[in-house]
Amino acid sequence: MERGTIPSHIQNLIRRSEDDPRPVVVMMCGIAGAGKTTLTKAILAANPAFTRLSIDAIIYARHGLYAADYPPSSYDSHQDEADILFLAEFRRLLQLRRDLVLDRSFYARADRDDFQREIEAAGARAVLVHLRAGEELLWRRICERSARERNADSALDISRELLRQYVEGFEEPVGEGEIVIDVT
């Protein structure tokens, strides 16, 4: 997948149609550096009816930049707050039958299952997109991102050790109806 483009099979899956007019909720799934936000922004550019929900964006809107506007020691409490706000906004927009892109890691199967249940209960359709990448590629991309100017989409400094924890704790979706994109 070329950065900033939407694979055609994904674009086709996220369209509403006369045969299936249900709202669509795209669940981005992957470890930091896999390209979730890049693909999310490409989806939004091509499909302006979609709304992006992002923990990082919520933290930025409420508290500013990590380590610049608030101390790193506040990150966990800001993330807890953002999780609550994310869930409330997700539910509100789902009830309004909006098309959504959930830009978060969805690292745990239980988290994915909970969201998919809510999506289906609201009469919407979930599209789980798993961006799969090897640890070395993830680390290279994280380093490249860190070298650029910090912004709302880089809400945390990720060390090699933290990336290792992410990789070890990530529960790959298997048999969940996922669409896998192998990131190269």
From TrEMBL:
Pfam family, one: AAA_33
The protein, known as: ATP/GTP-binding protein
Source organism per UniProt: Pleurostoma richardsiae
